[in-house]
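Whiteboard transcription, Tuesday session. T.W. wrote the structure tokens on the left side:
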């Protein structure tokens, strides 16, 4: 043993064997307490994957990070109504950062909403006021202040009293002008026998004007009974008088069995009695005063009886102007007598016999 040997000559112990390297451990067994690996979430800005593919996380930007001129309210990020689970956020994690709205923008929105509300109220109030005013105007128009109290009848009507016109018009009780139908009033007035036309005009606040024209008697027919009926040139019966008038032409219409009587007052003859009326109302002044009667035969032919006893065979009512000229020329010749018969049924070849 050497004196310099610090161990005193003893043999040092052998070093221990190095430990064997552990076997490679497999993936840890998942436990019920541990959630899915993605529950903790990946780092900010990194994407995560699920069984359905990559899931994206929203990125929020503060107002200070927005570019100049950008409206903070014009955002495309998640809103307060968004479902965090649909954005890929864990339901049990911390809430995500949401952008705040600039107070000036919020105030502007509130001001716009209030302004729109005030406009709606103004429109509603205006419409209500107009409706109330219209109801008041209609109610006022139905008061006696606006009734038909001033009635004026114009036009010649010697055979129709004004009272009859007012009664037919329905104005005797002064109805409100607003409910007065001028057309209907005119039609009622025209039902009067002698009234040919009527025009009605309203004049506010209480005036009504009725302009009328009367029919003129053109012929007379025997009947009813011993009376005589006065007719206009279109066959309308205007009046019944006790006896025959000397200044009116007698109108006679025959059928195959009997004569046609006059129609009741206010009514007209049937169309079959019409051919002779056209002749009666268009007789020329050259000999109209000599015509006593106009007769229509069953076959429709027309004949005239003159005050001198002369008979004129007129034929149909066609070519009346040419026939009138022939009659006037023959009468002007002066070579006729009471039994003469003038035949102008063929205007080109008039004849005189008897």
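and on the right, the sequence the group agreed on:
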């Amino acid at each position: 043993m050497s004196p310099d040997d610090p161990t005193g000559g003893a043999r040092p112990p052998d070093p221990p064997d190095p430990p064997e390297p552990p076997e490679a451990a497999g993936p840890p067994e998942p436990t019920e307490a541990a959630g899915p690996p993605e529950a903790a979430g990946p780092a900010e800005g990194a994407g995560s994957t699920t069984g359905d593919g990559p899931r994206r996380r929203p990125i929020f930007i503060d107002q200070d990070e927005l570019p100049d001129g950008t409206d903070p309210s014009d955002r495309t990020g998640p809103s307060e109504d968004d479902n965090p689970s649909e954005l890929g956020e864990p339901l049990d994690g911390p809430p995500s950062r949401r952008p705040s709205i600039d107070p000036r923008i919020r105030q502007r929105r509130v001001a716009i909403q209030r302004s729109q509300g005030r406009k709606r109220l103004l429109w509603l109030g205006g419409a209500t006021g107009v409706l109330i005013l219209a109801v008041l105007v209609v109610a006022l128009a139905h008061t006696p202040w606006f009734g038909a109290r001033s009635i004026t009848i114009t036009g010649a009507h010697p055979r129709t009293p004004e009272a009859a016109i007012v009664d037919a018009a329905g104005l005797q009780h002064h109805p409100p002008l607003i409910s007065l139908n001028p057309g209907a009033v005119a039609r009622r007035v025209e039902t009067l026998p002698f009234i040919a036309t009527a025009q009605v005009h309203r004049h506010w606040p209480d005036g009504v004007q009725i302009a009328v024209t009367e029919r003129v008697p053109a012929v007379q027919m025997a009947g009813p009974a011993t009376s005589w009926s006065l007719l206009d040139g279109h066959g309308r019966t205007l009046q019944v008088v006790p006896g025959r008038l000397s200044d009116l032409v007698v109108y006679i219409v025959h059928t195959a069995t009997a004569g046609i009587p006059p129609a009741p007052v206010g009514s007209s003859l049937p169309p079959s009695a019409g051919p002779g009326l056209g002749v009666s109302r268009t007789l020329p002044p050259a000999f109209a005063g000599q015509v006593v009667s106009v007769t229509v035969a069953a076959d429709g032919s027309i004949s005239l009886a003159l005050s001198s006893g002369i008979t004129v065979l007129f034929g149909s009512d066609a070519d009346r102007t040419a026939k009138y000229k022939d009659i006037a020329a023959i009468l002007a010749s002066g070579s006729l007598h009471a039994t003469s018969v003038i035949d102008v049924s063929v205007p080109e070849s008039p004849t005189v016999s008897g």
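Someone added at the bottom: Helices lie at 103-141, 162-169, 182-189, 275-280, 320-333.
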